[in-house]
């Protein structure tokens, strides 16, 4: 079997573009992959055009390791977010083809399940004013929908450190969410790499009373020594990794014991196998895996197949029950979250289909997302945001 050509499609929302790949083969099988870009979609499409000619067309989709190696190393330069995202789309699509060719869901081809359902947490639900009352009400909608975990960033456009009044306001929002969901629902506090180590430690100390299950990216992602400084001083688990794009980069993080949970994004990390490899290394350091996921149904499906086979998997991020819910229509077939869990996909391949007509009807809007802008949490849903 050979790959004959590659197609790309982009579905737009006000704040994110979802890029889909379809790989066609000479025996008629078609595989799909997806990633989400913030501001780099055109660069990704350009890379995929070049990679299609240089590496992809003519390859056997069963030879995933070989194709990924050539895409990652065959152009000599160091692969970053753009290349690793392109590799991820293609790698996912190859797995989809394999599953369809063999009549099996991808998780069976990866060694078989270690769990029967996948715990999920909600994100994208707090598109409201930053008041305790509105965060409280919004959090109730999450648990009313059956979720037993939710994540949010209460810090507005904060950067480096917060003014005392703004720090109190942010802590009050966490208190309001905890009050809304009760003691048995996990709350995950996103910091988006905003703070200095000292400020992150100070904030974490004030949040401990609300028992968050983790603080995420407390400091900018480039400096694992700074991250380990935070980890040594806080009593809350630390999560990070969505902006790490190569498993080799995790070596220092593990060596420093800088995080308790890693969050590679399959769509930016070279795909399912690359993420599984770093998960295996994490397991040797007693570190859990909670993949970052701001994608649509195809990328979410890839995450579910990985979660099904990964012993140290913790929980799966999911946006699309609250943010841009219509994007689920682009790839029907994904299980819904019921009582806080995804069921395992059962159809061959990834288990979802791409509705090209739907995607074409929702083209890119030139999405731009600035985490340091006022009212960024509205994600384009507020006219004056």
Automatic annotation (TrEMBL):
EC number of the protein: 4.2.1.6
Gene3D superfamilies tied to this protein: Enolase-like C-terminal domain, Enolase-like, N-terminal domain
Keywords on record: Lyase
TM segment ranges: none
GO molecular function, one term: galactonate dehydratase activity
Keyword Lyase: yes
Enzyme class: lyase
Protein's name according to its UniProt entry: Galactonate dehydratase
Provenance organism: Haloactinomyces albus
